[in-house]
Amino acid sequence: MREFFQLMKRYVAPYSKYLVGAVFLNIFSAVFNVFSFTLIIPILQILFKMDTTVYEFIPWDTADMAMKDIAMNNFYYYVTGLITEYGGSVTLLLLGLFLGLMTALKTGCYFGSSAIMIPLRTGIVRDIRVTVYNKMMSLPLGFFSQERKGDIIARMSGDVGEVENSITSSLDMLIKNPILILFYFATLIITSWQLTLFTLAVVPLMAWGMSAIGKKLKKESLEAQGKWSDTMSQLEETLGGLRVIKAFIAEEKMMERFTKVSNELRAATRKVAIRQALAHPVSEFLGTIMIMIVLWFGGTLILSEASPIDAPTFIFYMVILYSVLNPLKEFARAGYNIPKGLASMERVDKILKAENNIKEKENPVDIKSFDDKIEFKGVSFSYEDGKEVLHDINITIPKGKTIALVGQSGSGKSTLVDLVPRYRDATSGEILIDGLNLKDLKIKSLRSLIGNVNQEAILFNDTIFNNIAFGVEGATMEQVVAAAKIANAHDFIMEKEEGYDTNIGDRGGKLSGGQRQRISIARAILKNPPILILDEATSALDTESERLVQEALDRLTTSRTTIAIAHRLSTIKNADEICVLHEGKIVERGTHEDLIKLNGYYKKLNDMQAL
């Protein structure tokens, strides 16, 4: 339970007023409940004509009597007075109406206590989901290269949903049931302390039975949520790779894989469900055993000559004892649900507690402009497993110049450009902008100077206008149209029925590859950054689309400092400097003509493409 209270401490504070309200309403509900049950004794005594005592009114301030005894005496005094004046039938009716009123007040308070907890329950779940999303936004790209997207989606949906179903739904039980148990046991002690002592000796048996069932629930729930993540990952991979699956006639193979993970999920879920399903019958059985033992002991007391309680009082005692079983069982049910939710929260915490190794220094420099040059000085980069991707990179990129990076796949080109906006940090060496180390700069201001056009145009399920204006506050239609014209995108946009208000579908699926790329370029043009990173921006396009995109890129790179990754050497022939990377090192550098004359790596690449 320590983990549960730590979780509540993290998320309940903003909703403490709802907790206070729920506590008060549950106290009133318990009080009204006990009062309504108290009426059973005089009703039974009237029905069976068991009480022949003549009661006299005792002043409330009588010092030598307990308040409980005075209250009971005076209550019976008024009841016997009603019987004398109006008869037993009318008195029963009045007691019944009073019982109905107490029940109405009890159920009203019960409903109020549950309703007042709804904003707290929904608020906590909303806060967890928003916190996870915000944390994801702050994590570096390296984190997501190690995690499956389906697993992250499962934690955002299934695990957070399980927290809602298991933990927050147990909150009102955890508030209501201890209050009811406290009031019921207080009533039991007041009614007969001898019977209550005997009852308390039996309760540990019930508690042991409950704990035996709930012990392994958290472990099994962790396993089940892990299988749910596998299922979501399989689904996400299938949706992303449908074209390849159909092309390779691999539908049956994928169906078998999905069936396999679904069967594993079913088996894991079945274990949890069986353990949960066992909880109610076991608690019901143990509760009945307890009632039976107490009934035997109480009956034995009543049948003895010196019985401490009479029969109606014993029946009242048994009603209260039976009533205490329900909150005990609900309390136990919360004890099963909470481990399930804690298992899910443990998986969510893997995101929330993930370390962000891209740290901003305490008082970073807020860089406003780019005026001179970018310098790589002895830059090396290794992944966490120790594999070195870049080694001793030294490059100077003057303002307004274009530097191209070429080389075989896996040579470190994309990793090198990822270091400039600090998607990753160099393991050794330093990168300077206008003489300032990137690690001394405010990350937001650094990235505001940089624009990206990637090999795969990353677009959102939104309108063309919103995709071009993405990240640019207050962009006008005139500015968006101007950017689209420079990017050779305006004409095809206007051919759409809704023009700039056309929704482009998931990841821009309603557009061709060339159209998506031109929208991406228009977005970069509108941002108008002084530094531009082009990551193989034309490699996936046909000849006509490449021509249109290349024209747009030529306009975009004019007067901008550009770092371009290219496989098609024809697109970077005019670069001011070309750096050839091989296994993480710069092996050649110079202009296109210089590198051809060297007759090395670059010449081989050029000849292969020419062929």
Keyword list:
single chain, 611 residues, alpha/beta, ABC transporter transmembrane region fold, Rossmann fold, 6-stranded mixed β-sheet, 4-stranded antiparallel β-sheet, 21 helices, 10 strands, 64% helix, elongated
Describe this structure in words.
With 611 residues, the protein is an alpha/beta fold. 64% of the residues lie in helices and 10% in strands. It has a 6-stranded mixed β-sheet.
Write the layout of secondary structure elements.
Elements: H1 2-11, H2 16-38, H3 40-48, H4 67-86, H5 88-138, H6 141-146, H7 149-191, H8 193-214, H9 217-240, H10 242-247, H11 251-303, H12 311-352, E1 373-382, E2 388-398, E3 402-406, H13 413-418, E4 428-433, E5 436-437, H14 443-448, E6 450-453, H15 464-468, H16 477-486, H17 490-495, H18 513-527, E7 531-535, H19 543-557, E8 561-565, E9 577-582, E10 585-590, H20 592-598, H21 601-610
Helix pairs in contact: 2-5, 2-7, 3-12, 4-5, 5-7, 7-8, 7-9, 7-12, 8-11, 8-12, 9-11, 9-12, 11-12, 16-18, 18-19
Q: Which range best describes the helical content: under 10%, 10-25%, 25-40%, 40-55%, 55-70% or over 70%?
A: 55-70%
What best-fitting shape do the alpha-carbon axes yield?
Answer: elongated
Q: Ranges with pLDDT <50 over ≥5 residues?
A: none
In total, how many domains does the architecture comprise? 2
The CATH topology of the largest domain comes to ABC transporter transmembrane region fold
DSSP helical segment count: 21
Radius of gyration: 37 Å
- What is the residue-mean pLDDT, rounded to a whole number? 80
Read across the widest sheet, the strand sequence of neighbours is: 6-7-8-3-9-10
Total number of beta strands: 10
